[in-house]
Structure formats: structure tokens, C-alpha cells
Fold each of these.
Amino acid sequence: MYYFLNLIASVAKHFPKAVMGARIVKGLHRFPRLNCKFEDIPYMFIYVSKAAIANGSNPVWAVMADKYASREFVAKRIGEEHLIPLYGHWENPEDIDFDSLKPPYILKTNNGCGTNIFVHEDTKVDRDEIIRTMKKALAFPYPELTGQLHYSMIKPCVIAEKLMTQGAGERSLIDYKVQCVNGVPQRIIVISDRGEGKGNNFSFKIMTFDTDWNPLPETVSEEYRDNPEHIKRPDNLEEMLEMASKLSVDEEFLRVDFYIIDGKIYFGELTCTPDTAIAPVYVPEGMNAILDKIKADRKAGKSKRPF
């Protein structure tokens, strides 16, 4: 199977625009207007796609997308105390030191998405299966098949981190995803009740808020929409937004993810090309307020690293 995938990837890497166009057709069922002028971009995923194509060889994007290398980047800007504890990293899955890993922990690759393996205290660990799964994940040509070629500059590895838990009454961590434009937070996407099993990338509830914590339910598809009354405004929201600003200050658009555990803020990841722009969780035009801000900033000469 991977022989054919790699064969396709060897061709696809030369045509990231075509790959992005195919994703738009598949995900949004719309004509991919990737040749339009910047001022005519109709919705956010067109912007994200054009940005990904333009930054395919951007080493800064590669560092930010790297779930291992980004830790140093983040520590320098907001402090290493906001990093989830790291238990180890290995370039070869066969070298994973299982004996040193004490549950709960999570294993993941640093160069893609949807590769998480959750190990709880009561999880029966099949080491051989985990090694096989991680080898497949590291070998998958994610950059070429998604049109996000900056991922191809990441040195692949497996990392193990402490599996953080939210507390009683929560099935999963509450994920705060802050969308920033030129270092200014614009919206917070809140995700909860996320599934852990395979194929559960879209098993969750979601709600969007502005930075004053006013809900924006019209931006989210009804199937995935959470009740905003169930989502408490974080006590340290302003601190989280300040951290998001420090991490995104050099980028025209960046999504910064956080968790809040026992009142303390932990960094999740940095995403220059969030797939939520094309995922069925959003109304396609639901993110256009972000796009409008990007256009206004660029017109005013405020944009950082515009493509």
C-alpha cells in the first residue's frame, strides 16, 4: 500500500495547488478558487491553502509544525513551565523505551496529525502493535498528500508526553484554540468530548467565542455545535490570550492551542494551516471575520510575512 502512496506522493509534491484544490472539492464541495487575487479570496480555507503553497519551504513554519522542535520555540517565548512534561523521543519506533514510560502517557509522531496513542493505567500495552503503528505513521507521506510541504522539512520522530487529564466529569481535555492575526487574538475555538479511538478525529463538540467570551454559534455546523452555556469562561483567559499573542506575533495567521489543567495553562501546538478551515465542523464562511481582519491588516501594511 505504501509503495503506491509514495509513488503518488512523489508526483503530488510537485503540484501542491492541485492537491489543495482536490481537498477543497472533497471537503467543501466547492470550486477551488486558488488562482484568485488576495483581495478576492472568498473564504478562509482558500487563504489557508494559498498560504500553505507559498510557505512550502519556510523553515520557521516547519519548526512551528514540529510537535518536538516547537517545544524549544515555545519555551523561549512563554516559559518551559507551560510545556506538557516530555518523557522521551525516538527517531526509530523500535527504540521506544517502554520500560521507562509510566502511565498515563501519550505517544504521537511529531510530523502529522491523528497519530495519538493513549495509554492509561489500565491500558494493556501491545508493544509490537504500537511499534508497527508508529512506523506506518512516520512513513505516511503526509506533506505531499495534504499539500502542506513545510511538513517535509521536519525530521520525523515519536514523542512520549504525560497524558494530561481534565478532572472528574470530563471525558477528555478541553482544548482552547486561539486564532491570531498578526499577533492579535481574534477568536477562541473550544473543543471537548473528543474521542480517543481510531477514526475519531471528528468525534467532539465545538463552540467558538470572541475574545470577550461571547459565543458565535452561527460559525459551527449544527452536528458538532456545543451548548455555550456548558462552557465556562476560563479564569485566566487574559493570560492565555497574552501567551497566544507572544507566540503568534511574527505570523500573519496562526492558531495557538492550549489546555488549562488545575488552573495552569499548558501549550498544545501551533498550526499555520488548520484543517478546521475545511472540516465539516464549520460553516465555510464562518471564519470570514478572521479573513476580513487579515485583509484589513494587509491593506494597512500591518501583516507579518505576507505571502
Note: Residues 191 and 206 are 5 Å apart (CA to CA).
Amino acid sequence: MDAPSPSPPLWPRLRAWLELLRLPNLFTLPGDVLAGMALVSLGSALPAPSRIAAAVACSLALYALGLILNDITDVTEDRVERPHRPLPSGRISSRAALGAGLGAAFLAWASALGAGRAPAMVAGGLMVVILGYTYGRRWLPGHLPALVMGVCRAGNLALGAAFARPEWDFMVPTPLALAMGGSLLYITAVTLLARHETGGPAALSAPARYAPAAAMATATGLILAGLGPRMDMASFAGLTAVGACVTAAAAMECRRTRSGPLPMLVGRLVHLIVPWQAFLLLASGHHVPALVVLVLWYGARILSIRFAAS
């Protein structure tokens, strides 16, 4: 009788799961939650750490659900275009991935239900959008799939707001609405750029290449216009400088798409959502959380050396 084949070592198995979950991208989620909490009620302190932790757990679980379902539905295509990914390479079975996705859905739903009516409604809405995108995006026309991705990122800000105000009536304050609009614009532009990952830099037109930088400039401008009148001159000047730095960083990454490897550059553009979140926290007067979020950005950049972000 043949001996059973040994299980693969722990690290290769763990690495496969971290690749499936795009580990560096997970660092982009807590900042959305914190910014949403800060912007839904300007001038108020952030909620208790336990409530922040529950909101971040819900956000991470929803993101993991989307990634896992996306890879399961794309496994046939990935066998041709991305054979190194965990599912097409066989390092993780589709059945195991589906089980993990169901676990992520349960965690997200349990975290939201335990936090109140508003978090449950926002999390439920995001789950519906994730499922609709995963199983229906091939029938969505034009740029609509990219727009749905932007809606999900904007919804992550709303999730943070809902956890901060469990009985929220969904009357969206102007600062939060501007931030959600900015996140939607930026992630939509990055998603449109990511469509060309397998085609290489030559497949990019100039508008597609620089759209993320234009979106970031628009997003920061919206916040400065909306919150500037509430600030003193020094605070407004400092925030303007930070916004200009974030926009310049996006422009530099877009410029690199002329010759660099697109998957890596798309990952860097995704990670620039974190300085945008820090910008939002600074705009709302929460300086220490903004610094914490920037540390997460550094972590994402370091991990992206070892793990693909897209």
C-alpha cells in the first residue's frame, strides 16, 4: 500500500492563502473605516477601540469575500493569464477557497449585526454589491464594472460611519459625501487602468494612464473646497500641501506605467488610497490616526515586494 503523500510545509500553504487575499491590500482597509468614523460627525472623538476593531474586522471580511469569490469565478481565465495564482496553480482548491469565503461572509455579517441597525444595513448592501459584481460583471456594459469597484470602496467609508453611529439615518454629511465621491473616482480610475495588466504598457492610452492622478487631484480638491472654509489659514495651508503631495505621488506612479510592470504599478496606485485616507483624517482633525494610517501604507509598500497586490 502506498504511503499517503505528505502535507506541504506550513509556510507554502500559508503563503498561498496570503497571496489569495492580496496581503498588502488588506492594509488599505482600516483607514477607510477610521476616515468614515471621523467624517460622519466632525469634531467628535472616534468610537471606542473595541468598536473600531469590530468595524475593521467587518471590512476585512467583506474584502476577503470579494477577493475569494472573484478568484473562484476567474479560475479558468487565470489558468491561461495568471497560472501562478493560488487557485489555478492548485496550491489552494476551489472548495477550500469557497469554505473560506463563507467563513468571511459569516464574520462580516456577525460583526455588523452585533453593532446595530446601520452597520448591518451597510454591510448587507456591500455584500449584495460584491455578489452582484462577482457573478454578473461579464454582463455589465462598458466601464460599469470599474464603477462598481469604486462604489465598494466608497461603501467602506460608509461602513465606518455606520459603526460610529449605529442608529444612523443615512443622511450623509457633506464631508463624508465628498470623501466617498473622491474614493469612488480614484478607485474607478485605477480599476480601469488595471484592465490592461495583461496587455502591457503599450496597451495604455494617455487618458487611461493618467486618469488615477486626475481623479486624485479632483478628490483632494473636493475635500479642500468642502472643508476649507471651516479651517484657519495655517491648517488649510498644511492640508493643501498634504493633498498636493498625495496627488504628485499618484502622478509619478502613473508616469511609471509607460515602461514599468503594470501589475506592480497598479498595486502601488491601489496603496495610494492610504495617504488619501490620512489626508481625510487630517481634514477632520484626527492627526494621530492619520499617522497610524501612514504606517499601514509603509507596511503595504514593504509587503508588496513579496506579495502581488493585483
Note: The CA atoms of residues 143 and 149 lie 10 Å apart.
Amino acid sequence: MVQRSVLATGLLLLWAASAYATTYLINPEGTGDFATIQEAIDATEDGDVVELAEGTYAGVGNRDIDFYGKAITVRSQSGVPQLCRIDCGGSPSEPHRGFKFWHEEGMASVLEGITIANGFAWKGGGMVCYAFSTPTVIGCVVLNCGAELEGGGVYCYQSSPTFNNCTFISNYAPAGGSVHADQAFPALGNCIISFGTNGEAVGCESGSAPVLTCCDIYGNALGDWVGCIASQLGTNGNISDDPLFCDPEGEIYTLHADSPCAAESNPGCGLIGACPVGCGTSDVKELDPGPRKALLLLPGGANPSRAPWCLTYVIPARAAPCGVQLSVHDTRGRLVRVLVNAPQPAGSYSVSWDGLDSAGQPVAGGVYFCRLAGGGASATQRLVLVR
């Protein structure tokens, strides 16, 4: 009876929270529920949504936007980033960026379906994620953003943001042209980072460990899969191929039908980048599919999550049979638990981690890394365990 009462109370609280959530509509002309995006955010409470109508947003209140630690969603009304643009208008003499997450925002602070363009700052021309923030960025395009020092697109300091299905194009900085991590653990899934005009695609300071899954990094000025992410090419579905945008000169970042980032080209990953197929086949020759047949390791559910974790991994035919080890490590690289240590043939496998260490004791909540190794290759996934 007590358990049923607790469950009923929990469901009632969840219903109440959703029932009182408010959606605010903002127009670029300032004629919506509030004149600017920032004014709308200032009025929100946790669970609310700020929805942006189609158009270009610029000027005070529509750049340098601060979530102030709120668990809210800011998203385009259409869900199409090309139709909803934040034009930061940043320059060395007048720096401005799109968004800043520096009030310990959590995973429920969500930015979705927006283009952030023409930002410039000392660090993080498109956005910054500072101490202990863990925002979620989904389906966004970060375009032509730059930094004087690090992280033309995004600068992460002591933070763990998550980027899913995002496209980083033509960003620039001396270090980390699109993404730079400083004592940070950013996770990028199904993202494109291409054609950066200065800096390597992803840069790192010591104590950082970006984790990339099903990402395409290609054509960046000072290197693609180099430095701290060099070992991740060919693992976790990561590739380095021309994404074959329909019209990059016209800033149209939908994909040719034969793009290596199209969902049809990646049964194990699905769509890579923020934009789907939008035009016919290109005139390039068929790409070598080899890198996409490497070891693939995927979390089998929400991330972050409570234990138990369900992890799914794939051993391709060309890598099998091989001895496979699947292990969990903390942020310092120390072994927490070995989940699998045995020869296995090609195929798809699932294994559960109950949140216990090798001694059978519950581990503390926080960030952990699951590492799959076998056949001379490896793959890594970041897990955020909630207690």
C-alpha cells in the first residue's frame, strides 16, 4: 500500500508539473509573447518552453542568451534549423555569441532546432558551457563562429554538454576550431564537423575526454581526427568523409541522397548532422565503407540514467572472431568493473551494468566511461549515472 501511495504521488507531481508548463512564442519582429528571447527566458519556470517562429533573430536580447540555470527548452517552432537563425553579429571589436550556459544547467536545459551564426568571442564564439553545466543541444547548426583563442563554435570548461544531431560548419579558432574542451567531457553523437577555416576540429586541454559517436569530421583546416580524438576514428561509427551538402555556398546543409551521413547509409547510426536528405545523388564516386564497419558501442537507453544500464555493441564480420573486453572506468581512467572478457563472433550483443564495482559495491553517481576493445580496435561511451 505504501509503495502504491508513493507511486501515485509521484505520478501526480509529474502530471501537475506538465499541466502548469507554459509555452511562449517569440517572433523575430518582437511581436510575440515577449519582445526578445532573453525576456521570455527571464519569465520562464522549470518545464516551460520558449518557441521561436521562423526568421532571423538579432540584437540585444536575441544574442548572448543566458538560460540562468533553468530546466527549460528553447526551440524553433518548425524544427528546421535553416528556418530559425540567431545572427550574433560578433566581431573582434564587438564580441557576441549565441548562448551561454554557466549557471550549472542540467540535461533538462535544452536547445533545439536552431542555427547559431556569426558569433565571435574570446572563447566560444557560438556558445560557452562553464563549470558543472550539462545542457542538451539537439539538431542545431553552428555556422561561421570564431574565437580569439579557443572553441570557435563551442568552448567547454569543467562541463559535460551533450550535442546530438548537430552540424558545425566553417567555424574557426587557433585551437579547437569548432569545439574545445578544458577539463571537460563533452559528448557528441551523430554530429558533423566540417570545413573549419582555422584550428583542428576538436581541441583539448589536459583532463578532458570528449566522446564522439557516429560523427563525421571532414575538411577542417588543421586536422580532423587529430589530437585528443585521434583514436576515435573508425570506432563507434565515426567516419571522415565529405558529408555532401546540397548547397554549402548557399548555406543549405541538407544532404545529397548518397551522402555518407544520410540515414540510409548508416543503419547502425541513422542520420548524422542536423539536416536530412534534401537533394538527389551527387557526382562523386562511391565512398569506401570500411571505417563504418568498425566496433560500435551504444548505450541502450536514456543518458543520463539510473542503473541498470543496457549497453549494445556490434562486432563486424571483418573484425571477428576476436577477444572482446567491455569495461567501465571512472573519469581518471581507473578500472571500475569488467563486464565482458571473452572471444566472440561477429554479431550484435547486449549487456547490463547494474552500477556496481568489481567488489559488488554501488558506485557514486557521476560520469563514467565504458570501453569496448577487440580485434585491434576500440570504442568508448560516456555514461552519466544518476543516484
Note: The two ends are 25 Å apart (CA to CA).
